[in-house]
Amino acid sequence: MPLPPIPTQIAGQVKISTKDTPDLKKRPAPAKPVVMETHATEWLADTEEDLSEAEVALAKIKTDHRTITRNERGGKSIASAPEKPKRIIRTGPPSLFVLDTNVLMHDPSSLFRFSEHDLFLPMTTLEELDNHKKGMTEVARNARTVSRSLDQLVAGTSGSLDEGIPLNKLGNQDVSGRLFFQTKLTTQALPEGLPEGKGDNLILAVVSELQKTRKGQ
């Protein structure tokens, strides 16, 4: 690659003027305040007005939300409590519920959740409870809990089991029904097509017989 030609003239000199150099010792002049335009001032006024209206509306909502009644005698403020749903009271005879094993193993306290109604436990339900008591599963624990509750209800019972055992015997005052056990084998035939010997079908046979012997419940 060839070299560039040798320069034939002397390079020029650049003269720097001292007038353009700022004096760092002097403070800069203060900036002039910028006057806002008229439309910006009007916008700020409208915004403040909107905010005040929103605050008034919010205060009104809070006041309406608090339902306060004045006590005429004492003059004290009493917050009105929400009304509880009224319990429907039956005028007829109590119903008779036949409990399946799954109901008791799912919720051991279901024995005491039927208020004024009576309960009936078939032999099949008691046998299946005994078969599920062993183990450390939740189902086994629930089965043992139900079994203990039944033992406590039966303990010290005088008279025949056919008369029923008061469910409030253990101190559960929310229930007023009675507990009945199946003490005799059922003679009710199963509907055609249902195999015999199956637990659920045996319970259905008991229900069918109770519909005939305990009419009205």
Structure, explained:
The protein is α/β, with parallel strands linked by helices and 217 residues long. The protein folds into two domains: 39 residues; 118 residues, Rossmann fold. 35% of the residues lie in helices and 9% in strands. The chain has five helices and six strands, in the order αβββαβααββα. The strands form two sheets. The protein has a four-stranded mixed beta sheet with strand order 3-4-6-5. It has a two-stranded antiparallel ribbon with strand order 1-2. A hairpin with a 6-residue loop joins strand 1 and strand 2. Helix 3 packs antiparallel against helix 5. The longest helix has 28 residues. It starts with 37 loop residues before the first helix and ends with a helix. About 2% of the residues have low confidence.
Write the layout of secondary structure elements.
Blueprint: H1 38-65, E1 68-70, E2 77-79, E3 96-98, H2 101-106, E4 118-121, H3 123-131, H4 138-154, E5 165-166, E6 178-181, H5 199-213
Parallel strand pairs: 3-4, 4-6
Antiparallel strand pairs: 1-2, 5-6
The ordered H/E elements are HEEEHEHHEEH
**Inertia-based shape:** elongated
Question: How many separate structural domains?
Answer: 2
| Average pLDDT metric | 77
Number-wise, the strands total: 6
CATH structural class of the largest domain: Alpha Beta
Question: pLDDT under 50 segments (min length 5)?
Answer: 68-72
Strand arrangement within the widest β-sheet reads: 3-4-6-5
For the sheet with most strands, the description reads: 4 strands, mixed
What is the oligomeric state here? single chain
Query: What count of helical segments does DSSP give?
Result: 5
Write down the Rg.
45 Å
Determine the CATH topology of the largest domain.
Answer: Rossmann fold
Derived from helix and strand composition plus strand pairing, the structural class reads alpha/beta
- Percent helix range: 25-40%
Give the end-to-end Cα distance, rounded to a whole number of Å.
118 Å
- Beta-strand portion reads 5-15%
CATH architecture of the largest domain: 3-Layer(aba) Sandwich
